[in-house]
């Protein structure tokens, strides 16, 4: 098949989130002819074109600096579109897509994220998949329940309503995808859609392989993720303020390591003798292996959490909140222990730190789950089937 991928961010380097997903899917669909059109938000992004050309036959990068995206958002005063969508509007992108579509006959198009949906919502001639990283309205609904300042509350409530209304656009596509069963059920219930399917997030088992983790140490609690992402920022602050002190009562020498790129000021201010902020980490696998327990105390968000999947793949026991847990399709304790109460969360961390055998038991269950359900090879094969299915209907 000849396939076009339209992405909101350049999928390289493939370290986190939406970049990681597109890169890993495309890498495993190399039996097909793949084309990529995406935004470059910085001059640095432009240098990665040659890396992407190892996977894609053609790569088109549209430069959209952040200042121009911010300017786009000013139209929110009179537009009813969500800021998430306005941020990625570009006349240059529309011109490039028109050029590419006139030159090539594609069997199907993969549109990544709600943010990119306007570019293909009205194109009925080509089979199109809209791949949502998560149920965005669910994300905003959960975020609204976390205490915020009054200005933030006003802004986010407006955005939540706009996102919920705009999500109806998924009905315009031949198929829409979400990464967890929880998100799928929410979207079907909210929008009464019949074209939604599941495409889980995955793990690169060549990178995150369970090889000889040392379960004997119990002095390091790890959190990973982009540290300018609101759920992650809230999660580490919540852990440091409300959970870590309870853990420290039992384990005085334990350290909490926050590993992730672009830590904002609120995160950097958490650093002390007990809290380590690493910034960007190139070898995340080594960082996971250094941990005794991985935590994901997110209080809002949607989808599944890569940090949870990666830790489980390496056999590191995880304690997480309910955010994204249902989408894993596992019972608590099968690699990840789910807790919603801060005291119970702290106690689960304590229980794991207190027992080497318990850490190993939970960790090894996680390895089995990931190998059975979250290998990128199987997920790419599923996406390939979806492409074939929508192409056959045209």
Task: Give the helices and strands, then pairings.
Layout: E1 2-7, H1 17-27, E2 33-40, H2 43-46, H3 49-52, E3 58-63, H4 66-73, H5 83-86, H6 91-103, E4 108-112, E5 128-131, H7 136-143, H8 150-166, E6 175-178, H9 181-191, E7 196-198, E8 220-224, H10 230-250, E9 255-259, H11 265-268, E10 275-279, H12 284-289, E11 293-296, H13 306-313, E12 318-320, E13 336-338, H14 342-353, H15 356-373, H16 376-392
Parallel strand pairs: 1-2, 1-4, 2-3, 4-5, 5-6, 6-7, 8-9, 8-11, 9-10, 11-12, 12-13
Helix pairs in contact: 7-8, 10-14, 13-15
Tell me what you see in this structure:
With 394 residues, the protein is of the alpha/beta class. α13 (306-313) packs across α15 (356-373). It is built from 16 helices and 13 strands. The longest helix has 21 residues, at 230-250. The strands form 2 sheets. Strands 3-2-1-4-5-6-7 form a 7-stranded parallel beta sheet, sandwiched between helices. It is globular and about 65 Å long. The protein is 42% helix and 15% strand.
